[in-house]
Amino acid sequence: MAVVSKALPVSMAWLRSRAVPLWLVAGLSAALTGVVRLVGFGQTPDVFGDEVYYWHIGHSVESGGFPRYKGGLFFLHPPGYFYLEGGWEKLFGAHADVISGVHQMRLLNAVLAMITAAVLVFLITRVTRSVPAAVAVSLVFAFDPFILRLNDRVLIETSMMLWVLLGYLVLLPLTESDKRPRARGRAVAGGLLFGLAILTKDVASLITVLPLVAAALFTWRSRRSLPLLAAAAATVPYAVYVAVVAAAGHFDELWAVKTHGIRRLLGQVQETGFNAAGAPPLSQRVTEELSNFGGTYVLLALGPLAVIPLLRRGGRAQRLLGLWYLSAGIALAYAVTKGTLEEQALYMLLVPTIVVVALAGVRLWEGRAGRRALRAGIARTTTVLVLAAALAASGFTYAQTRTTPDDGYPQLRQYMLDHVPEGSRVISTSGSVDLVLEDRYRVGRWRTPQDRARMRAAYVVATWRLIDQGYSPFTQRQARDLTRQGDLLFSFHGRTYGTVSVYRLPVPPVSHAAGAGGGGG
After folding, report:
1. Banded model confidence at residue 521, pLDDT cuts 50, 70, 90
2. Is the dihedral of CA 185, 188, 190, 192 positive or negative?
């Protein structure tokens, strides 16, 4: 359904222009999104701890079976993304090296982001009939620094959001007419796509099933069975997954992990995220990232202003997408106040924010002839200025980040492989360092002279930003006291981890180890 009547002012006719075929617009948007993500590939951003986990888990299903990590079954997240990784390895071969494996899966996420950009073009054009609006959305998606940060890494949310967008794209024609041919089949198909999103990450149910149920109750005035049918279909893939796990005799393990995961989601258990004990407050992180994510914050601030007119005066399509945004906002607001809040959760809100801001922007731009000319002109000028400012801020941040290497962990690993004998004991100050080095070295937390003597630990790897921010098992004082005793062998300064350093320490005499308790390995 179009946002406004087909009768547009002549001056607005260009907004609906289709001088270029839509498929070509979508293809060019996908290509730009891919190029933007491949510039500086391998040098930025630095390897993130979860990427190594997800690479290992994806590698475990390359030949089939349930996802595993270090030999044990992995049920914390559903298997959807991991099977995509396994299929990607089947196509292009597997890598034994951690860094090469992570980079291979980053290419997979770049492809998923490209498809996402094309889907956004089709979705926006479907609702607004405006190709320029779709192009604007694709540009924001291509360059927004937060979206880039998430798409650049081997994280689950990129694939999850692609399935969500595909589901909404398939369901949108049902909002235009209740009497479309094969309406029930389309509802089932859209619901199954939502189901694949849920099979990728459970939390996707909050931005798929919940909006459909709300639409059936509040905005779908006839044939309410269609959104309810789609919601029911969305549960099928996950139900099949649970049934397969149960048939294999692993239901108790799945149940234990999932109930723990629900407690984490509700905030009853705070193991990770900004609400966890010892983590820096969200306000501090927001302030620190203001220079990078200023444009992103402006878009997020516009979201609530944009969704109100869509829910009040929009058609069925606008209201469905508005409910999608509202569901994501409620989920994130709960995570901020009480639940487990992790940085990547913002992606679940940011993508629908871009969509609803675009829909509202088109409504403003296509102001009716009866509206005061001055008011309409201000609205249009504001729309262009906000878009230009967001793209300018994103472009500036992009240029900064892509021209400065941020590959401390790849350089660290290469230095260690070249200069430190395999199997050496290495004192690590963070879990992410463990993940990057543990396949070649014995990594531990040997702080005291007795532990160092017992283990013959002669090397320390320090990630100073993680230490300073409280994300390390070492305090600042412990880390500085330890590294002060040794010689600096390697140092790299990057955006992600600050200074990453390797030190060689003198090994204390073996006599220090007598009677000492273990220090953890």
Report:
1. very low
2. negative
